[in-house]
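pasting Alkaline phosphatase family protein for the record, 380 residues
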Amino acid sequence: MTLAAAGAGFVEPAYHERSLGDVVPAVAVALGRPLRDQDAPSRLVLPEAAAYVVFLVDGMGARLLERYAHAAPYLSSLLAEQSPATAGVPSTTATSLTSLGTGLTPGAHGLVGFTSRVPGTDRLLNALLWDKDVDPLEWQPHPTAFARLRERGAAVTVVNKREFVGSGLTVAAHRGADYVGADKVGERIAAAVGAAGESPSLTYLYDGDLDWTGHRYGVASSQWLQQLSMIDSEAEQLRDALPSATRLLVVADHGMVDSAPESRVDVDELLELRDGVALFGGEARFRHLYCHRSAVDDVVATWTEVLGDRAEVMTRDVAVARGWFGTVEPAVRPRLGDVVVAARGDTAILSTSDFPYEATLVGLHGSLTPEEMLIPLVVS
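structre below
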């Protein structure tokens, strides 16, 4: 399968073909419990089975898995035989996990980045930390694919860290499933094997340690390679522990790029980038710029001139027309920036005053480069 190029070295999201939002609907069909209310049927076809375990590894891009195959011989061997998939836009955890759990595109489920504007306010919602004033059931009102699969008679279980139970992101993305708290690898594998004993069933298992390591040390670091090797062993042990009739599907939410110091742009040092911008959101590789009234065209012109070929700068309308977010629902539209900025190469667009933590990170993600967008989707 050849995934469509979006120009400028970008990869188009393969919505309804081979993207994260297609995984659970395809699993449902493979279990014999199709989600009949799918607006746009997925073209992803998976092998039939009585039980599926979906193991999502945060930050394990397909390009990274190919590049460092020696550190992950099991997973890289599977990837060599099966086509990659894509994340959605932006290629970031909150957006991707919600696409997987709901079966929807970002423009439908509404989690459109690490941070996005709460419409009608001058505040940003941090989708990972959440805000107690924002009801996740209102922010993401659609029934999840997990819940719909359960209504079709399948057992559905989420295995994740105890700290995430009941979080805003969990409620928005993964409600409707049984939740098993498991902090250690051994706990996670045992919980997944136990849940997969039911038939038909879907068990979702999450591991975020590789992403954390990449952010902290970079994907070119020995720490990241060691963590990748541990993930590879975890996946192989999980496969060995599961019955042969149970399918294991390994996927990721995005890849990652290391951003060099000389590739970083700080809007607090280039004050012209603040002109016309009322609220600075998104993340370092994919910015949402919420503009003052009538300032949109000037913001696009200034950012285009300053950044040049380091980023793709466009209005919200252009990004929506390109299909980056899928079909955008009216309630979601104002959460998108009036202007969106997608970084090329290893560029990072920072604000050391608004987001000081981002400046401490080495590995970053969110844009549409192949390193960030292409993800493994392998079945064993």
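The domain at 261-362 is CATH 3.30.1360.180 (Gyrase A; domain 2).
The mean pLDDT is 96.
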